[in-house]
Each structure stands twice: as structure tokens, then as C-alpha cells.
Amino acid sequence: MSEIDLSKAVEISDGIHWVGTGTKNFLSRNAYLRIYNGSGKKNAMIIDPGPAVDLDVLIRKVSDVIGSVSQVNMVFMNHQDPDVVGNAPYLGRSNPNTLMLATEDTWRLVCLSGLDTSKFRAVERFKNMRISLPTGHKIQFVPTPFCHFRGACMMYDLESRILFSGDFLGGIACTQLYATRANWQGVKAFHQLYMPSNEAIRLAVRRIRELQPAPLMIAPQHGSIIRTEDIPFFLDQMENLRVGLDIITTFEDTMPQLIDGLNEIVETVRKTIGEESVRQTMRMFHADGSYPAIFSLTSEEKITEIKGDPIESIEALIRMFFRTCDDQQKSVLKSIILRILIARDLPTFDTLLTQEFAPEVEFFEDDSPSA
Ligand SMILES: [Fe+2]
Ligand SMILES: [Fe+2]
């Protein structure tokens, strides 16, 4: 898969092109070009046109496929975040006949950027939230409330059976166009931070499972595209994921303890492996500006906030520290960290901190005849 040239538009299915960018960043942005051709008619739709900083790439990739960006006459927007809709005003100006499709909740905010309201079509006004295009193609709109915005809505292209899922099932640190199961960690981290609750996720998962016919691909606005064979895996994982408020309320009482414990661990590690190694490791958690750092730090490098699941975040940090240690330092640190965790009544990350004890002494019964 690594041979796919992501500097160019990539056709992911007949008439559907990935025209996104940012795959070298922590958080990539996927825009898609859907060309509908049939009954002597042609329509070109951009799905989630992306942020203004990606406009040059979008224009180049779209022009490579259809000659000019002014050929685009439909835009669909999952929700109103700037990373999704930043280029919608440009597309509206480059072809004033461009129809804008979104939910009313989304439009109410997107139109503040000066879009022509007469070109807006509210997807919830379509009968059964489905439309047929003059080319004969059918589209179904599937709302995913609070995943992560109130008016978020997926778009299901019924001919290709590709589901454009917006932020839902998006992921960070995905550098390849197509997902493998190893991408779950990045998908999980993204949802833990940006999705409000497991309840909202379950509703979205249920709606995807109910789609008839079942999708062959799920194409999110960030990260990698999920192919048929991996869809059940990602939906199953997602269904049980604790995110956003679930995490905040679960750790509400223990969070100060966790942060204090973590600061004590960092201080101990600093004394063992040195200031510079600690700083370098902490820097790795700062991503690249396209995504928030897992830990908020003061100027004295004291941790004040843990984002995402705190247990997993602490475990990830300890794991990173261990990578910079030699065996002897690691063994000393294991004992000290374990002591800190036990003293503060915090989880002890058994697999991470397992000590290599000397083997148990084997006894042999003396079966020689007694004297
Ligand atoms: Fe978003
Ligand atoms: Fe997004």
C-alpha cells in the first residue's frame, strides 16, 4: 500500500477520488471527489472540502481529475468544523451554481462564512433522507448526532457502497490511505478526545450496521479508509470504547491523584535518566501542532492535565521513558514507579512493571530410605 502516491488524487472506487492531504501530519484531512456520470448528465461533488490551508492541493488534485475545480457543482459537508468546510466558500464562488448539502444545524454555522443560502439544500428535508440524482445515482444521508457535532451527518453513496463518515471512524497518525487493524490505536485516541460519549458512538455504530446494503468501505475525514474486511472489527472496537465525558466522569475523583502520581514519576525518572532525556520524551507527546498534546504542561514542565484515557496515557509515558533507559536504570525505575503507584493506590500496570525475579527454588523430596 505504501506505493500509492498520495501527492496525487487517488481513485478509490469507480468515479470516486481521494483528494485529501496532510498524511505526513498527525491529523490528515481527507476530501473526496465523487463524479456522477449517467443518462447523458454529469455531476461532480466534493465531500468534506477541507480547510483553507489545503485549498491549493484540493484545486490541483481536483483539476487533475476533472479539468477544473469550476466543474464541481455539489458540496457535501458532514459538519461545520473549519477542517471540514474551510474551502466551501471558494467552491461556491468558483461555480455559483454549486449546491451545498448539509444538515440545518451544520448550515446555520457554515453559512456565517458568507455562503449563498439560496444554494443550500437541507438533507433532512429529503424524503427518507435519500435523493436520486439526474444521473440515476442514489444517495442516503445518515445522521450521527453528537459524533461529534449535534448536526453531524454521514453520506452513503449507494452505488459504490462507500460511506463517507466525517470525523466518525477518523484517526490520527495514519500515514497510509487504507487502514489496517493496527490503525485502531490512532482511531481510538482520536475518538477518546473528540467524541462526547459512548452513547453517541453506539447510535452511530448501530446506524452503520443497519445500512442496506452494507457498506464496502468507510471513508472518514481523517486517517485511513476502512475496507470491507475490517469494518466489523472497527465497529466492534468502537462500540465499547469509553470516550470524552465517559472518561472525564469516570476519573473525576481520581484525576488529581493520577496527576500528582504522574508528576512524582516524572520527577523520579528525571533524577534517574537526566533532565534532557525526560524533556525529549515529553516532546514526543506534543504531536506536530495538528493535534493536541496528551499532557498539558506548565513552563516548569509540570503536568496539569491528562487528555484521553489517563491510565493509558500514563502507561504510554512510562513505556516511552523505558525506551530511553538501559537495563539497570529500567530495573531501578520499575521498583520506584511501582512504589509510587502502590502508595497512591493507583493501578500498577502489571505487564509494564513486571519484575524479573530470580526463579523460584525447586525442592526435591528426599525419597531415599530413611535410616
Ligand atoms: Fe470535527
Ligand atoms: Fe475533522
Secondary structure: elements and pairs:
Elements: E1 10-13, E2 16-18, E3 32-38, E4 41-47, H1 55-66, E5 74-76, H2 82-85, H3 88-94, E6 99-102, H4 104-110, E7 120-122, E8 130-132, E9 138-143, E10 153-157, E11 162-166, H5 184-194, H6 198-209, E12 217-220, E13 226-227, H7 231-239, H8 244-250, H9 255-273, H10 275-284, E14 295-297, E15 303-306, H11 310-323, H12 327-343, H13 350-353
Parallel strand pairs: 4-5, 5-6, 6-7, 11-12
Antiparallel strand pairs: 1-2, 2-3, 3-4, 8-9, 9-10, 10-11, 12-13, 14-15
Explain the overall architecture.
By secondary structure, the chain is an alpha/beta fold. It folds into two domains: 232 residues, Metallo-beta-lactamase, Chain A (4-Layer Sandwich); 95 residues, no CATH class. Helix content is 36%, strand content 17%. It is built from 13 helices and 15 strands. The strands form three sheets. A seven-stranded mixed beta sheet has the order 1-2-3-4-5-6-7. Strands 8-9-10-11-12-13 form a six-stranded mixed beta sheet, covered by helices on one side. Strand 4, helix 1 and strand 5 form a beta-alpha-beta unit. Helix 9 packs parallel to helix 11. The protein is elongated and about 100 Å long. The model has no long low-confidence stretch (mean pLDDT 91).
Helical fraction equals 25-40%
List all distinct small molecules, including ions and cofactors, that are bound in this structure: fe (ii) ion
Question: Low-confidence parts, pLDDT < 50 over ≥5 residues?
Answer: none
What is the radius of gyration computed over CA atoms, rounded to a whole number of angstroms? 25 Å
Net shape: elongated
Query: From N to C, what is the helix and strand string?
Result: EEEEHEHHEHEEEEEHHEEHHHHEEHHH
Give the count of structural domains. 2
